[in-house]
């Protein structure tokens, strides 16, 4: 007999689904032919991003999605890389 999914597995699945959904809505929004349709998709995209953020925040709060701090040296390297890439 199959065991029911644990809460962590459910939230992991929801987060993965939300990432996919927002990716799709972003593509659809970029390809809208009229401003009215684009505005509607932007509204949906915003809602879906909020759901994704809520799920992420809950997982992070429970320690199920750790986000270690970046090393200061790596932050400085990234800043320098992108500052050097700016057009003059």
Automatic annotation (TrEMBL):
UniProt keyword terms in alphabetical order: Capsid protein, Virion
Domain of life: Bacteria
InterPro entries: Ferritin-like, Spore_coat_CotF-like
Protein name: Spore coat protein
Organism of provenance: Hydrogeniiclostridium mannosilyticum
Source taxonomy: Bacteria, Bacillati, Bacillota, Clostridia, Eubacteriales
């Amino acid at each position: 007999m199959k065991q029911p999914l644990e809460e962590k597995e459910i939230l992991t699945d929801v987060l993965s689904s939300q990432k996919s959904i927002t990716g799709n809505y972003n593509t659809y929004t970029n390809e809208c032919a009229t401003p009215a349709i684009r505005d509607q998709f932007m509204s949906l995209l915003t809602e879906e991003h909020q759901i994704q953020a809520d799920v992420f925040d809950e997982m992070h709060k429970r320690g199920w999605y750790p986000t270690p701090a970046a090393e200061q040296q790596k932050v400085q390297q990234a800043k320098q890389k992108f500052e050097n890439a700016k057009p003059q």
